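Input record (Table S2, row 257):
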Amino acid sequence: MAKNNSRTIVVAGNWKMYKTIDEALQFMDQLIPLVADTRAKVYVAVPFTAIHPTAAKAKGTSISVGAQNMNDASEGAFTGEIAALMLKEAGAHFVLLGHSERRQIFKESDAFINRKVKRALAEGIQPVVCVGETLEEREANRTEEVLARQLRESLEGISSAEFSQLVLAYEPVWAIGTGRTATPAQAQEAHAFCRRCITELWNPEVADSLSILYGGSVKPDNAKKLMEQEDIDGVLVGGASLDAHAFASIVKAQPTS
Ligand code: PGA
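Output record (2-phosphoglycolic acid complex):
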């Protein structure tokens, strides 16, 4: 089947716990001219403290600034947490939800992620929902079972109409920060599986128009082959997104047709 070129292509950077405000602004000064004429949407998920100044700098450019996490409550006595409305006010356009580091290190469950997805949609912040299997799960041939569960539970109750506000990211945990990328064929297989799950759980129209990004050791030299795959609509980049030139060459690696 030919690739559905009407899907939005997104190249997203995830800075994790890197970059002060100063460093973030320097990065933006470098990145803005490098990606000025891109067809892809360029996203950067920055530390909370950098959202406001970075979003101000990105105003009027093709770059959208977002957050890496949020709480599911609208407000309340949750020391150390941050609400969707606060992120939005600071200038965040999107939020990463269910990143594997949140799932693994901070023990976030699919049910919690689901509540956050609903909160983000209700407050008008685009959720970028991450799913992916661990090495142990892949080696036990449980990849599909894990992906199906994560999709079903983290997206439970999301309406077909709300899907147009949402982006999905497939990030195999064994490929994150390890330098061990999934091959384009492995990634394509998992993306096609996610799209089939969405078809079954919702409908073919929702599945066909959903942008699904690949993440896990994406670098300037492997991004193009990944993004050429039929079901891969962009990438979510950790380490290589910290350098404006490396990130810009990933943005430019998108297929031309
Ligand atoms: P990586 O991280 O590109 O450094 O593997 C990807 C991610 O965690 O989103």
